[in-house]
Design a protein that fits this description.
mainly alpha, Hypothetical protein af1432, binds fe (ii) ion
């Protein structure tokens, strides 16, 4: 079975307190379905949501904030089911950065019970692309954690990509 880890962390997340907080969401068919979608070029939407949930949880815990809501909202903040590239190209009138937080919230509410803070975090995680100001400290943090994770997900696989490219070039020369 594949081990559950956040990008950039070696910690095995199964059996952790963090896992128990999000287990019901994580094990649902709908959240598992996020594995089918590529996200930020280098990862899946499932892995990205797990990353945001994990780092948002740790940061909020460190600061004495609502780490439980932070973890749950982190996992659901991009809870939508379309390929971003295809969708935005077929519907140029849709501003994805504004549209998907509302859609994620609508989808999340259909499947799970959410508290007010969780809704605020999901709805405004793209601030300042979304006009409304974050309503709590946890929402301010998720706007930063989301961007931090996007950078991490793109940068960390680059050395391996480079190595693979060099190896493939060498192979091509030999053949
Ligand atoms: Fe998002
Ligand atoms: Fe995100």
């Amino acid at each position: 079975m594949e081990q559950l880890k956040a990008t950039g962390s070696r910690k095995h997340l199964e059996d952790s307190e963090f896992y128990l907080i999000i287990a019901d969401l994580l094990e649902s068919e709908e959240v598992q379905h996020l594995k089918q979608f590529r996200h930020h070029i280098m990862t899946t939407r499932f892995q990205h949501c797990l990353n945001v949930a994990y780092y948002q949880y740790r940061l909020c815990r460190l600061l004495g904030l609502d780490a439980v809501s932070a973890a749950r909202a982190g996992l659901l903040h991009d809870f939508y089911f379309y390929d971003t590239y295809e969708y935005t190209h077929s519907r140029p009138e849709v501003r994805h950065s504004k549209h998907h937080p509302e859609l994620a919230l609508e989808n999340a509410r259909k499947h799970f019970a959410l508290n007010e803070k969780e809704c605020d975090m999901i709805r405004k995680h793209m601030f300042p692309m979304t006009a409304e100001l974050p309503g709590c400290a946890e929402t301010w943090l998720i706007t930063l954690v989301d961007k931090y994770c996007a950078v991490l997900e793109f940068v960390l696989p680059q050395p391996k990509r480079l190595k693979d490219a060099v190896r493939n070039r060498r192979r091509a020369r030999v053949n």
